[in-house]
Amino acid sequence: MENPTIASSSLTFLKHLENNNNREWFAENKDTYILAQNNIITFADQLIILMSSHDAIETISGKKSLYRIYKDVRFSKDKSPYKPRFAIGLKRATNLKRGGYYLNIQPGNNFLACGFFSPNPDDLKRIRKDMELNHSEWRKILNSKSIRDNFVALSGAKVPTSPRGFAKDHEAIDLIRHKQFILRHNFTDQEVIDSQFVYKINEMFKTVRPFFDYMSFVLSTDLNGETRV
Fold first, then answer.
1. I need a labelling partner for 46 at 20 to 30 A (CA). Which of 61, 170, 202, 216 fits?
2. pLDDT of the chain along its 229 residues, tens only?
């Protein structure tokens, strides 16, 4: 396999795109974009190989993992046509393995995120009910050393007070208020172009497995522990 290190030239392309976010400039620099894109695909291919040694990854290739750089501007006030970032998304295989992995490569805004970005209403209710009943198990996982060291705390959007049907003074209301369940870690540009970055990402993603395994159990069973997939 080619060198999976993210090239500094790939970040430079994104910096220039942010300052020249128009179709004319992009067309003139299409070859540079393709070189940068291929660099990220090579990185993602290696990441999938590493991840597949310890998790079941449904995403079959680095190319399939990449989000489009082109924006849908139909309903946006910002009409700039491109997203000045490369984004990689990896999906876990089968309905019994829940959760997803995401990596954002963007100068000054590099981060990985894993978890559950937009659970459907039934899944969200099931998660909250489990938090209400088994909050000590949630605390144990989220306060584990690997989670605290790499992600500090659970992040993601929350409702302002308490969801309907849940007591606002419940001892786990800080968890129950979540409507997204995300673990995130930020990186500097220098970290991104380090030759060991792909291995660092793999190890960091590996540390979320207890969180994913527990969430997978919750989302594939009802409150009696019966399978609901």
1. 216
2. 678 999 999 999 999 999 999 999 999 999 999 999 999 999 999 999 999 999 999 999 999 999 999 988 777 777 899 999 999 999 998 777 888 999 999 999 999 999 999 899 999 999 999 999 999 999 999 999 999 999 999 999 999 999 999 999 999 999 999 999 999 999 999 999 999 999 999 999 999 999 999 999 999 888 777 776 5
Helices 30-51, 197-206: axis angle to 10 degrees equals 50
Q: What is the pTM of this model?
A: 0.92
Of 48, 46, 90, 92, residue with least CA distance to 67: 90
56: left (phi over 0), alpha (psi -120 to 50) or beta: beta
- Cβ–Cβ < 8 Å for 226, 144: no
CA angle 67, 71, 72 (to 5 degrees): 115
Which tokens sit at 67?
A: 């989000």
